[in-house]
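Dear colleagues,

As part of the handover before I leave the project, I'm documenting each prediction I ran so the next person doesn't have to rerun anything. This entry is a single chain, and its sequence is reproduced below.
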Amino acid sequence: EQFREAALGIEAELGKADSLVMQLRGDNRTRLRIGAPSYTTRVAARLQILSEFAAKHPRVAIDVTYGRTPDKLEELRRGDLDVVFATDPESLVGLESIVIARSTTCILIPEGHRLAAMSEVPISAISGETVICMPRGSMPVGYFDRWYGKVVEAGGILLEAPETDNFAQTHFAAARGALVVTYKWQTGLDRSAGAMVTRPLIDGPAGCELHLVRRNSLHSLALEWFWGVALRYEAPPEAPPGLQAVSANDGASNGGHRRHG
């Protein structure tokens, strides 16, 4: 039995070696399967990683599919994906990750609204205001309360948008003179709509981290190339409480790399 297990292990390693040789020879079947939430298309670091990789390795076919973070991580574990851009992943057992962007919480306000005159808005100021929110059923279990719980506690009145698309929600809010609690990525391309202004929301929901996640083993050569590009965009570590936040540079840092056994 031990001999059989050893033989299977050698066979698997030879298979991986053959695959790498094929890729080094420029096999046109080489591809990289990437999963991501659709809203990450406005995070600059994510776009820059894909653009730089595509320019450096034009013979690697890039296949990007969209979905919720928990679903995409499950696909990654099954081997259906090679790498995933994941927002605040809850469990990374058997995976490794780097943080490529962090967000802060903001509020979108119609121009002319009483809160628009403020340079920053304490969450207590939204008492009695209508706040457009995601449809509850579209969010992972527990995430809705995590994101909107403080809004409700502060006296905000939630109104579910008819669509999950962020831009559609913003226009929905603008037409009703309502507010939208959202996030601003440090290196992000932030949404805007009509006559809406963005202000920091003080004491609101915590911001998000965008991770790049892969399995701890079984990496293709294309994935190693992609990971190498991504490391250049790793977000700096968060500043300790009480210190000024780190500025949003795209320089490399080893502050967010994590391996989970």
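Residues 22-29, 240-255 have pLDDT under 50 and may be disordered. Residues 170 and 192 are 7 Å apart (CA to CA).

All the best with the project,
I.
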